[in-house]
Design the sequence.
């Protein structure tokens, strides 16, 4: 019997999906091997789960074993002279940057929140606001240890086995359990960035400014007000950031101290941020959000226009951690995100049609973010030379089906344009649409590696079943 | 039709109300596990709804030792569980002056002990995951100590009290516990018994039961008119009730 006491309801980050699974917290490789054996005995499967920051069903597996890595978050080795660090998979980006910053290093690729684990980051091959410049997470990983479904452990080095390395990275946990990895950090001379804020009155300008900025700034990210149509469609604010260099800051050792990076607890020094979401909650509807987006745009385009200022690395990088629990504004239905990756030339057309369709179906996105990307080497990667548009949608009772239709329709547009999708952000895409973004034979190749490395399909997830039919 | 439940387990599913529940759930797109002793009857359900939709297990609810492992296995094979219905039950005919201990204990084992064996793990699971719905099929016969069938009535009364206690334990965790009290339903159980009235079809009973379950009501008489009747009957003083032929 599986211990009934381990059964828990586990949700994707967006809280629009969940499943009951047996939660185990291994602390050693031996524990993980026991879990594999237990799964084999009970004829069930396992899923790895980092911090559960994937929006949808990537780390969900009904009735399976869910591996939580919160007891595998040790820093195994750190060399401040080279920036090489060995870590266990449960180490979060938060722990990572806090560990290395004092020595003048920073993780080269970080996500919009600092919660994800390095295991989750490698398995989804995440990107940052500097994707154009630095590529994805796996490009800064030198090697990793993989516990395979048969219980054997092997080290995979990018230099030695690039093909296998790039098949495992970005394969959302389907080829094995990452138990250790070696990462290379990025040198920084200061804990501060120089940031420029500008506004764009429409989509065309927005894309042009983003594209121009990518060669001059390390970080480029844009927020779009997804509510207006017509000439204002695609308007928004852009933020560019670059690390301060040696000599630009009088006392860099100050800004490199983690205490000086901590995000403030209060907003405007008075409002405790932990309850901010409560203030936002009453506005979480079409009309309210349209006003919030409009005011944010107008404020940015007037008071903030062309502002140049300094911001700490943590503040700039982890903007989404600014308002803790902000996703609670979407409860009880939760939210989903849809992120389309579209080649440069088609981006304007596709994003315009997507935003118009959202308007037409009366399902506007409450939060929309634009980034610039470059191709990656992963077999199951999502990178391309183009832009991505990430759209957040509330999931409301009675509107779920319509929302799922909208996602499929937006997906079709991406497929036609030769674009890609990012599983970490997806919850609703039909498998056929996802699969048709790959070149001929690519999916088959991945599935044959899966078959070889895990013939009993011991490692599964709802996402892999939905998108690839694994299970 | 909108799917109200995704994965259901019906114990006592080979005929009557249980079988009707399985068919209705399956037609809504719910995956169902159907349990009972008669394999041929269970096979009909799979044949009609498809193996994808209905899985079956031959099981005798008095084999209590089998339950914990079987419960887990079914959740695994269904790929989840959000509804458990205990419909297994027997009513042995007893003559007015007959005292048949073996027949009485058999009813208690099937109607009550089996329910405890199945609904305990269901309550533990649903309580742990903070969601789910448990339905127990009691009977109007459990509302009073009628002279006609002491063990049947008291097995249903015990089930009623047990379900109330379960509800009091786990409702606050988000689990719905629904007590269903049918009047007369046209099934094998009452076939041939004379003088029955307000008899409804098992399909109709199943429709009402699923509606009540999805709303998560605490207790429902099926059909609803029995509520009033039983409210009156429950209030009849014992010394009068003794002389009534009900
Ligand atoms: C607010 C927010 C902002 C975000 N911003 C960005 C962004 O800017 N860029 C970006 O790329 N992504 C972004 N994401 C997505 C997020 O970075 C990814 O979903 C990431 O994978 C989350 O890591 P995790 O540790 O939470 O992993 P989980 O979500 O728990 O798991 C992700 C996948 O990795 C697998 N996995 C986890 N650990 C292991 C392991 N040890 N071995 C094998 N497989 C494993 C899981 O099975 C699963 O398939 C954002 C998410 C949120 C919530
Ligand atoms: N019909 C009515 O008027 C009426 C009124 C009030 C309450 N009820 C209750 O409704 C429930 C369903 O009865 P029904 O009317 O649908 O009668 P039914 O057709 O006889 O159904 C009873 C079901 O219980 C199963 N069952 C009996 N003993 C079992 C055992 N030991 N192990 C496993 N399964 C067993 C039977 O399957 P197998 O024989 O194949 O095992 C059958 O599927 C019962 O609890 C009954 O008390 C019925």
Sequence:
């Amino acid at each position: 019997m599986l211990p009934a006491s381990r059964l828990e309801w586990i949700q994707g980050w967006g809280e629009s999906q969940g499943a009951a699974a047996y939660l185990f917290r291994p602390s050693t490789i031996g524990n993980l091997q026991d879990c594999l054996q237990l799964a084999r005995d009970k004829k069930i499967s396992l899923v790895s789960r980092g911090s559960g920051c994937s929006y949808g069903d990537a780390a969900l597996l009904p009735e399976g074993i869910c591996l939580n890595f919160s007891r595998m978050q040790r820093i195994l080795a750190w060399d401040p002279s080279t920036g090489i660090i060995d870590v266990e998979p449960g180490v979060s980006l938060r722990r990572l940057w806090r560990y290395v910053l004092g020595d003048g290093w920073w993780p080269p690729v970080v996500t919009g929140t600092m919660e994800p684990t390095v295991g989750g980051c490698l398995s989804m091959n995440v990107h940052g606001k500097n994707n154009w410049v630095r590529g994805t997470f796996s490009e800064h990983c030198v090697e990793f240890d993989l516990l395979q479904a048969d219980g054997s452990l092997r080290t995979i080095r990018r230099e030695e086995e690039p093909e296998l390395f790039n098949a495992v990275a970005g394969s959302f946990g389907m080829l094995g359990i990452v138990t250790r990895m070696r990462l290379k950090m990025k040198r920084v001379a200061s804990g501060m960035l120089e940031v420029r804020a500008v506004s764009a009155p429409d989509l065309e300008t927005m894309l042009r400014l983003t594209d121009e900025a990518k060669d001059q700034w390390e970080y480029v990210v844009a927020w779009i007000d997804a509510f207006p149509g017509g000439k204002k469609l695609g308007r928004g604010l852009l933020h560019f950031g670059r690390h301060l260099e040696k000599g630009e800051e009088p006392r860099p050792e100050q800004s490199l101290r983690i205490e000086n990076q901590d995000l403030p607890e209060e907003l405007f020094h008075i409002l405790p941020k932990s309850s901010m979401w409560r203030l936002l909650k009453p506005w979480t509807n079409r009309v309210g959000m349209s006003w919030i987006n409009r005011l944010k745009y107008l404020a940015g385009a007037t008071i903030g226009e062309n502002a140049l200022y300094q911001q700490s690395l943590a503040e700039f990088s982890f903007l989404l951690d600014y308002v803790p629990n902000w996703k609670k504004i979407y409860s009880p239905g939760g939210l989903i995100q849809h992120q389309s990756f579209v080649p440069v030339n088609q981006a304007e057309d596709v994003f315009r049609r997507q935003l118009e369709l959202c308007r037409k179906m009366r399902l506007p996105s409450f939060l929309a973010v634009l980034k610039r990307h470059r191709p990656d080497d992963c077999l199951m990667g999502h990178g391309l030379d183009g832009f991505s548009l990430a759209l957040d949608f509330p999931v409301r009772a009675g509107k779920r089906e319509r929302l799922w239709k909208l996602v499929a329709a937006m997906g079709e547009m991406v497929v036609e344009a030769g674009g890609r999708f990012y599983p970490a952000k997806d919850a609703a895409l039909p498998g056929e649409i996802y699969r048709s973004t790959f070149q001929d034979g690519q999916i088959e190749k991945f599935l044959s590696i899966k078959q070889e490395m895990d013939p009993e399909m011991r490692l599964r997830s709802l996402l892999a079943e939905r998108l690839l039919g694994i299970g | 039709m909108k799917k109200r439940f995704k994965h259901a387990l019906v114990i006592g599913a080979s005929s009557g109300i249980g079988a009707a529940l399985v068919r209705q759930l399956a037609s809504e797109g719910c995956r169902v596990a159907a349990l009972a002793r008669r394999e041929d009857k269970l096979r009909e359900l799979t044949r009609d709804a498809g193996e994808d939709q209905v899985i079956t297990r031959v099981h005798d609810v008095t084999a209590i030792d089998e339950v914990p492992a079987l419960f887990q296995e079914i959740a695994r094979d269904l790929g989840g569980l959000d509804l458990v219905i205990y419909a297994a039950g027997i009513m042995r005919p007893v003559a007015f002056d007959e005292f048949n201990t073996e027949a009485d204990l058999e009813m208690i084992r099937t109607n009550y002990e089996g329910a405890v064996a199945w609904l305990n793990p269901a309550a533990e699971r649903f309580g742990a995951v903070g969601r789910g719905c448990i339905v127990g099929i009691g009977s109007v016969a459990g509302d009073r100590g009628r002279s006609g069938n002491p063990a049947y009535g008291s097995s249903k009364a015990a089930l009623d009290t047990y379900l109330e206690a379960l509800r009091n334990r786990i409702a606050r965790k988000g689990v719905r516990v629904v007590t269903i009290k049918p009047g007369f339903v046209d099934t094998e159980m009452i076939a041939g018994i004379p003088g029955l009235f307000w008899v409804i079809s098992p399909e109709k009973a199943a429709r009402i039961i699923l509606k009540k379950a999805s709303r998560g009501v605490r207790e429902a008489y099926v059909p609803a008119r029995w509520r009033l009747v039983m409210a009156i009957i429950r209030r009849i003083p014992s010394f009068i009730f003794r002389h009534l032929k009900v």
